[in-house]
Specification:
- The protein has a two-stranded antiparallel ribbon with strand order 1-2.
- A hairpin with a 2-residue loop joins strand 1 and strand 2.
- 66% of the residues lie in helices and 3% in strands.
- With 116 residues, it is mainly alpha-helical.
């Protein structure tokens, strides 16, 4: 059964939703909570932590979105043509040079003494 909708890339979706939830909770607790302990205020730390968590959730959303892009084999073949591996390119280049040298007739170098 093909995966459709929310069932594709569930790990990325749960990562994004979890980080959004944690970030929002930290932001709201930092903004509206009375977080003074031993004379120190921890509200700013929670606001910054929440903002970082929400920003990090963007990675999860991008991964989830990218995982849900559907391309058929025909469409993929139009856009993506893999280049041969470096070793294969090197072998082809050497083979081509050897073939060209063998296909050429040997060149004869004449000296100036023979031309007189």
């Amino acid at each position: 059964m093909p995966r459709t909708g929310l069932r594709r890339c569930p790990l990325a979706l749960w990562l994004a939703l979890g980080l959004d939830g944690v970030g929002l909770a930290c932001l709201l607790a930092g903004l509206f909570g009375d977080l003074r302990r031993r004379g120190r205020d921890y509200g700013d730390m929670l606001v910054y932590t929440g903002a970082i968590a929400v920003l990090a959730s963007l990675l999860g959303w991008v991964l989830w979105y990218a995982g849900n892009i559907e391309l058929g084999p025909a469409e993929l073949g139009l856009d993506y043509r893999p280049s041969p591996p470096p070793l294969e390119r090197l072998v082809r280049k050497i083979s081509r040079r050897i073939s060209l040298r063998l296909a050429r007739p040997p060149q004869r170098h004449e000296t100036t003494a023979e031309q007189d």
